[in-house]
Amino acid sequence: MRRTFIWLPWVLLIIVILSFIAWQKSQQPKPTIAADGVKMPAEKVESLVDTSRSGGVVSYSAAVKVAAPAVVNIFTTQKVKKLDHPLLNDPTFREFFGNQVPNQLDQKNENSLGSGVIVRADGYILTNNHVIAQADQIVVALYDGRRAEAKVIGTDPDTDLAVIKIDLDKLPVLPFKLSGNEVGDVVLAIGNPFGVGQTVTQGIISATGRSDLGINTYEDFIQTDAAINPGNSGGALIDVAGNLVGINTAIFSQSGGSLGIGFAIPARVCQQVLNSILKDGRVIRGWLGISLVAPTQDDVLAPKQAGVVVADVLQNGPAAQGGVKIGDKILKVNDEQITSVSHLINYVALQQPASMITLEVERNSKRENLRVKVGERKTQNQDSQYIPLPKR
Length: 392
Fold this sequence. Notes:
Blueprint: H1 2-27, E1 32-33, E2 39-40, H2 42-45, E3 50-51, E4 57-59, H3 61-67, E5 71-80, H4 91-97, E6 108-118, E7 124-128, H5 129-132, E8 137-141, E9 147-156, E10 161-165, E11 186-191, E12 199-210, E13 221-224, E14 236-238, E15 244-251, E16 262-266, H6 267-280, E17 286-287, E18 290-293, E19 308-313, H7 318-321, E20 329-333, E21 336-337, H8 341-349, E22 356-363, E23 366-373, E24 375-376, E25 387-388
Antiparallel strand pairs: 1-2, 3-4, 5-6, 5-8, 6-7, 7-10, 8-9, 9-10, 11-12, 11-14, 12-13, 13-16, 14-15, 15-16, 15-25, 17-24, 18-19, 19-20, 20-21, 20-22, 22-23
């Protein structure tokens, strides 16, 4: 009995020590998957988002604090010319309408609202082209309360992007996220919906590479379910680290409000347009002068047909001079397999004007290669069933 009594306290002490060690290990952070799919320690993720003890996210405030100062509100003014018509002074006309008719319609200002993103510390801002189109005056309101009049540096209606500039110092900048976006990634939309002031909404990336929507001439959209409304035009779509994922540009809606289907122009495209405008004053793109449609497919269950069909050819255009004809099915460009209309349009747009490309076409069940000299595309506007976020 005495020997058992001597060892019992030591056994209890060892059990207590082992229990304490096990409890300490359970409190250590475990590896977590970040939004871009890369494994990182939980403490690094927690520097970007606040989580509860159970691991659930309770706040994205850190990302918002990084990005929000670089998102601006844009106020545009368009002057409406006054109307001075002889009919306004006609006695019979005035007798019928009485004193409700002024001698002339005074000049008025139409104001609208949108958003923008500061992308360079020297004052360059990205926004939607439709936000500043036809504006006589553009005023930018910063997160810190400062205001400045902006000038237009360049526009690109084919992607609905524009670059404007303000002359202020100590400007915050939102860095581009050029790759790594995946469906399911958490994103935040920051803008000025309905003119109520800067607002943040949260969602996920619902799809990438959305095209053939008829919104812009060149389409490679990120789709998100983060709430986007009128006034968000030109605002930022960011990731949980505060990087610029895209510029919010359009919504699919039957009422004009958010239905959880919004579209943003990817940061990669935004950067290309920015650099081109700053270098050349405009965006230079290749062009063939043809209209395209997807191949007719009777059996919807059959595998998707390769290539695109030429529906029309501009007379004396680059494609016509290279021998392309209506009805040709374009299968490849420079040995790259063509999968859709937007794929071919975007591929050709990246080619330098006056460069030569090889088109592999199928004509009368035979294949042949055509050499075509790329032309330069002129910008143009395009109607759409989708809603570019209206100015307010």
